[in-house]
TrEMBL record:
Its EC number is 1.1.1.49. HAMAP family: G6PD. This is Glucose-6-phosphate 1-dehydrogenase. NADP(+) binds at G12, A13, T14, G15, D16, L17, A18, R19, R46, K145. Keywords: Carbohydrate metabolism, Glucose metabolism, NADP, Oxidoreductase. Gene3D superfamilies: Dihydrodipicolinate Reductase, domain 2 (3.30.360.10), NAD(P)-binding Rossmann-like Domain (3.40.50.720). Substrate binds at H175, K179, E213, D232, K336. It comes from Oleomonas cavernae. NCBIfam families: PRK12853.1-3, zwf.
Length: 486
């Protein structure tokens, strides 16, 4: 079903996000017949180029990021015909009148302003949108992380945005919320009667959330060195996943109903600060090693520096201090240049209270539910079953395995496809509200401060491994292990 007609302006249109994600996502939705005839896209950037040159840039972006079979039909030209380009200075006057003139004849449509720019440009762009009459009731603002680099700066960014756009027209993207399996977590929890009665400290022993990447920081080292894994991944993606696991059932899928529940989780996170950061957190930085069979450089070499204390790996033992989750650890871990690219959530259930099978049948392992985000999205429920055969009873832990690719046989849409159309639909459920972002910083800030206050460096780990040995010790101290294989 096509969405309502819209004009989408991408600020920073010649950047990496537009090239790798936004243009391919819009093209895929066009291919699926979801863009109405009058939908158009305006690229805006400082880079001087003609419309023709921008079209070439967009065509190349699609060639690079869309399978060739999808580019062979007339849809490619139809998509390119929707594009326009404006040279614009986000902090000056150039180009703003041109942009206003381009969108003015479309005043009856939904206007989406997508800021795929450095965060320092959010305020100047918002001010100019307002000054040139492009922030009125039909205009929506989309911003990408990072929203600030601590609570104080996030508040300033949010205030600058809020001075022009009311909260119900602001869409803060966390692209993890657009991932299919992440939404499936809500379906799994709230559309099945099976799990919710067990979803608490009475039956769940612990939760693991892993977002492991095999790539290093590569050409993003400049940005990354000012952020680190805590700001880049934990403050947003991992905490959002934690919220979806831990939140109370919202009364509806209404944006504020869901976001209210996530906010309560963020506010219930037990503080980690100077006193306990040493026991509850581990940070690491990769050294040269091997990845997928080839030698890869260390972080400092990629950065071109001999000195940086920026973490490329974080493990945290978090706790949600409320009635449902009291004393259930949430082990979070994320890092670059780890052994493989795996993102998954593991719900570890408590063992049975008594085993009648011991000792001959072997030990009874606790059940676990694994929601795998990537690669090969799916859900696995590990159960104890009897090994087949006429002998005595022997038990094995075996997965009930549901792979989305096999079950549905469809292409898994990129998170941005879903999220971009949700903006046009006016659905904020999968976007972060201002108070959520700020609550996440309120928990992260004291950890960052504790790290800054110590003279300890991030622990080195070899590229291509599962991170520093201290991260393994963090969970093994509690008699548990990281589950790397689902
Ligand atoms: C981004 C981070 O938000 O998420 C990157 O800035 C990271 O550092 C990326 O690589 C991971 O996203 P995905 O969808 O590839 O898991």
């Amino acid at each position: 079903i096509p969405v309502d007609p819209f004009v989408l302006t991408v600020f920073g249109a010649t950047g990496d996000l537009a090239r790798r994600k936004l243009l391919p996502a819009l093209f895929h939705r066009d291919l699926a017949g979801q863009l109405p005839q009058r939908a158009s896209i305006i690229g805006a950037s400082r880079r001087v180029m003609s419309r023709g040159q921008f079209l070439d840039f967009a065509r190349q972006a699609l060639v690079d990021h869309v399978p060739a079979t999808e580019l062979s039909g007339p849809e490619l030209q139809r998509f390119l015909d929707r594009l326009n380009y404006v040279v614009l200075d986000a902090e000056g006057d150039e180009g703003w009148r041109d942009l206003a003139e381009l969108v003015a004849p479309q005043s009856d449509l939904i206007h989406v302003h997508y800021l795929a720019t450095a965060p320092s440009l959010f305020q100047p762009i918002c001010e100019r949108l307002s000054r040139h009459g492009m922030a009125a009731g039909n205009a929506r603002l989309v911003v990408e992380k990072p929203i600030g680099k601590n609570l104080e700066s996030a508040r300033l960014v949010n205030a600058a945005i809020g001075a022009v756009f009311p909260e119900d027209r602001v869409y803060r993207i966390d692209h993890y919320l657009g991932k299919e399996t992440v939404q499936n977590l809500m379906a799994l929890r709230f559309a099945n009667a099976l799990f919710e009665p067990l979803w608490n400290s009475g039956h769940i022993d612990h939760v693991q959330i892993t977002v492991a990447e095999s790539l290093g920081v590569e050409e993003r080292a400049g940005y990354y060195d000012t952020a680190g894994a805590m700001r880049d991944m934990v403050q947003n993606h991992l905490l959002q996943l934690l919220c979806l696991v831990a939140m109370e059932p919202p009364a509806s899928l209404d944006a504020d109903a869901v976001r209210d529940e996530k906010l309560k989780v963020l506010r219930a996170l037990k503080p980690i600060d100077e006193l306990n950061a040493g026991q509850l957190t581990v940070r690491g930085q990769y050294r040269a090693g091997a990845s997928r069979g080839g030698a890869v450089p260390g972080y400092l070499e990629e950065l071109g520096s001999t000195d940086s204390a920026t973490e490329t790996f974080v493990a945290v033992k978090a706790e949600v201090a409320n009635w449902r989750w009291a004393s259930v650890p949430f082990y979070l871990r994320t890092g670059k240049r780890l052994a493989s690219r795996v993102s998954e959530i593991v719900i570890g259930f408590r063992p049975v209270p008594h085993s009648m099978f011991m000792p001959a049948a072997g030990p009874v392992s606790p059940n676990r539910l694994v929601v795998r985000l990537q690669p090969d999205e799916g859900v696995k429920l590990w159960l104890m079953i009897k090994d087949p055969g006429p002998g005595g009873i022997r038990l094995s832990l075996v997965p009930l395995d549901m792979s989305f690719a096999e079950a549905f046989n469809v292409r898994n849409p990129d998170a941005y496809e879903r999220l971009l159309l949700d903006v046009v639909r006016g659905n904020q459920t999968l976007f972060m509200r201002r108070d959520e972002v700020e609550a996440a910083w309120r928990w992260v800030d004291p950890i960052l401060e504790a790290w800054r206050a110590t003279s300890e460096r991030p622990k080195p780990y070899t590229a291509g491994t599962w991170g520093p040995s201290a991260a393994i010790a963090l969970i093994e101290r509690d008699g548990r292990t990281w589950l790397d294989d689902g």
